[in-house]
Amino acid sequence: MMEITEGSHAVAEAVRLCRPQVISAYPITPQTHIVEALADMVANCQLDAEYITVENELSALSACIGASAAGSRTYSATTSQGLALMFEVCFNAAGMRLPIVMSIANRALGAPLSIWNDQQDSISLRDSGWLQFYAEDNQEATDLHFLAYRVAEEHSVLLPAFVCFDGFILSHTYEPIDMLSQEDIDRFLPKFTPYERLDAADPISFGMYATPDYYHEFRYEMDRALKESKTIIQMAGKEFGQMFGRDYSAMVEGYRLEDADTAIVALGSICGTTKDAIDEMREEGKKVGLLKIRVFRPFPTEDVAKALAHVKRVAVLDKNISLGAKGAVVLEVKDALYSSGIPIKDYIIGLGGRDVRKKDIKAIVALVEKDQGDIFYGLRREVL
Amino acid sequence: MSLAVGCRARPGKSRDNKTGSWRVFKPDFNQEKCTHCGLCVTLCPEGCVHETEEGFVAPDYTYCKGCGICAEECPGEAIDMKQEEK
Fold first, then answer.
1. Are A95 and B6 within 8 A, CB to CB?
2. Rounded to two decimals, what is the model's pTM?
3. In terms of residue numbers, what domain contains A345?
4. Interfacial residues of A (vs B; Cβ cutoff 8 Å)
């Protein structure tokens, strides 16, 4: 059923349909309306879940770890500094192989203090072992939650997942959403079957101590599970498409890319703006296309290499910066296209909520055509 | 998968970890000086010092990490820590 809904509320509704048994979150800044809406649903008996209020984000995710280990489907949401406070717990959740799903309404990290959007928060946890999905719009943001639970809980995966959608740009924006029904989701997402769970009658400890003889292998098995989750994502995404008409089997998605000379690579809401800019540039005769990356972890290296094999140049838009190096996305794209000889330029853009407009995308295309890049785009004159 | 997923363990796994391999200094118990006070049995953090059938005390070197607490606390100075040749 089509509804005009705010991004955060649409995500909350999607989470409700996933029937989480335990929700734990810290309600104050940096938080979104997601957990507020979920708290209402629990209080109004629209959702049969244990809602645990905690004193900070570190405790929020820790409570999810306990609940997930006890065999519950768990959920949390955070962003920015809240996610940074979860850093340690994120690695533990992944290492204990607990399929927790968490929404990240992407925002910048302080200092300086900023409440606005970029993707530095989740990108900074790229090495933690969590799956990372990035949504272009609120429809995708809601749908990816169903997919995230389905993939994370597969016994061949058993890893937690971030569903990332741009803070404010999506989280606080009203858009029409095709909201699925409880019957729909019950058909797509089976009841959570834990691989193992805490049980007083058969005690077990999670995330035990591994000596140098074994730690290496535990990390290998996490990496293998994350890489092999690509097959599960493709399978579940395809099934979702067959059931509801929106196919998420591809981890990357091309837009007017087939005959493009210049390819833009991006993730998140910036893809929507880029598509509009591409339409206008196409009318002017410029052969520009977009490669949207929907899944950043596991990174679809082969898919990126295949999708960009024919282009003459690539411009990567990074809403993050690995300070002292480059944006995180360009490093992956360069890895995928290594030895292809295709020139690849990086553009750090839209940090801390700086608007990215169609004219900025066009300006970047003009720059990459002149082989100029690897820059912070649109810097103020006083720092030059 | 070949390892316990998520490094999960059932009770009693510490028996499998033969911590004796960590040892650099080995406690050498002098049974002639030993007064059988039992302090080493109580204080050993691994719980690996036991009374023998003859009433003496002896460590289980399979698990003794060589921490030296027993030697430090022994009132009769009956325990010497000696560098171990491996």
1. yes
2. 0.91
3. 252-383
4. 95-98, 158, 195-196, 202-211, 214, 217-218, 221
Mean pLDDT of B16-27: 91
B9 vs A: CB within 8 A: yes
* The pLDDT of residue A204: 93
CA distance B58 to chain A (A): 27
The total domain count for chain A is 2
Give CA–CA dist A109/A113, Å, rounded: 7
User: Would the CB atoms of A214 and B8 count as touching at under 8 Å?
Assistant: no
Percentage of residues in chain A with pLDDT exceeding 90?
97
**pLDDT above 50: residue B1:** no
Distance (Å) from the C-alpha of residue B66 to the closest C-alpha of chain A? 18
CB A256 within 8 A of CB A283: no
* pLDDT tens figures, A87-119: 999 999 999 999 999 999 999 999 999 999 999
CA of A95 to nearest chain B CA: how many angstroms apart?
Answer: 5
User: Could you report the average pLDDT of every consecutive run of 10 residues in chain A (384 residues)?
Assistant: 95 98 94 96 98 96 98 98 97 98 98 96 98 98 98 97 98 97 97 95 91 93 97 98 98 98 98 98 98 98 98 98 97 97 98 98 98 97 94
Which of A224, A244, A264 terminates a domain? The answer is A244
Q: In 10 A of CB A338, how many CB atoms?
A: 12
B17 touches A at CB < 8 Å: yes
Among chain B residues, CA nearest to A197: B8
What domains are defined for chain B?
Answer: 17-83 (3.30.70.20)
Same domain, A361 and A300: yes
Which residue from A195, A202, A210 is facing B7, i.e. has the nearest CB?
A: A210
Mean pLDDT of chain A: 97
